[in-house]
Design goal:
The protein is mainly alpha-helical and 284 residues long. The protein has 12 helices and 3 strands. Strand 2 and strand 3 form a beta hairpin. It comes from Octactis speculum.
Length: 284
């Protein structure tokens, strides 16, 4: 209750004033969320900073997130990286995951896919589903590791089994199209799209679209697929209704490439010649 929260804040504030790190951290959380006390981003930052400077990993993680998002402080990716790294080195999975993401996107640090893989792997060892999904994408695209679609599918599956809707959607797309040595399995794709569509997340409509596509039998096998990227069709002069329309889009939290495929009819035989243009990285 609000009364209990106010009482807790009073006790945390007393202990925090005596230098108790856990109390300082808990007080900062209450202030950040406005739970039993007036909400103040700036005051929360001050209370997170004290235990963070004394090595309290959870405070370091929160301080890193506040610097990353510019909440209560001026946005500073380098400072965010610094705090995430300190907490990550102490084994905090959330910090390991966020540090890896920032390294992949070159936020406050030079892009280094191998280092990103290292931190994703550490978070995966702790069972973090989002890290499993993102590490899977690294394996699927061969970024910082040797390309290994089977390994990617294994990681997607582990995250999907934990209920991650992005992983369920990504794995469904893989089974729908069967890249590499992975055969098509529309029954699995349907089940996974359905699980993803039943959850509240930004990709829910795309999961529903995947379901509709399979159930209607209109799976377009000639559309190039790149899991973890945005794919677009261009130049289909003989099919103007498709010109500029999106292909299969797998736009998860870990999307880090914007790729355009130029697809042209080859000799009027209905086959497709694909040219890929890397338009540069984009942070989602």
């Amino acid at each position: 209750t609000n009364r209990d929260s106010r009482a807790a804040v009073e006790w945390f504030r007393k202990a925090a004033g005596q230098g108790h790190a856990t109390a300082q951290y808990n007080l900062a959380c209450h202030i950040l969320n406005g739970d039993g006390v007036r909400q103040s981003d700036e005051e929360a930052v001050r209370w997170f900073r004290e235990p963070a400077e004394h090595g309290y990993a959870l405070a370091q993680y929160n301080l890193g997130s506040l610097y990353r998002d510019g909440v209560g402080v001026k946005q500073d990716y380098r400072e965010a990286i610094r705090w995430y790294r300190m907490a990550a080195e102490q084994g905090d999975a959330d910090s390991q995951y966020n540090l890896a993401k920032m390294i992949v996107h070159g936020m406050g640090v030079k892009i280094d896919y191998k280092e990103a893989v290292k931190w994703y792997e550490k978070a995966v060892e702790q069972g973090m589903d989002a890290a499993q999904l993102n590490l899977g994408i690294m394996y699927f695209d061969g970024m910082g590791v040797k390309k290994d679609i089977a390994k990617a599918v294994e990681l997607y599956t582990r995250a999907a089994d934990q209920g991650d809707p992005g992983a369920q959607f990504t794995l469904a797309s893989v089974y729908e199209h069967g890249p590499g040595q992975i055969g098509r399995n529309w029954a699995m794709a349907t089940s996974l799209y359905n699980m993803s569509a039943q959850q509240e997340w930004p990709g829910r409509e795309r999961a529903n679209a995947g379901l509709a596509r399979i159930r209607s039998g209109r799976v377009e096998s000639n559309i190039p697929i790149l899991v973890g990227s945005k794919v677009y069709l261009r130049g289909l002069k003989d099919k103007p209704e498709l010109n500029g329309s999106p292909g299969i889009v797998v736009d998860t939290d870990a999307t880090f490439f914007l790729i355009r495929y130029i697809v042209k009819l080859d000799g009027g035989k209905g086959s497709f010649r694909v040219k890929m243009e890397n338009l540069g990285r984009t942070y989602q």
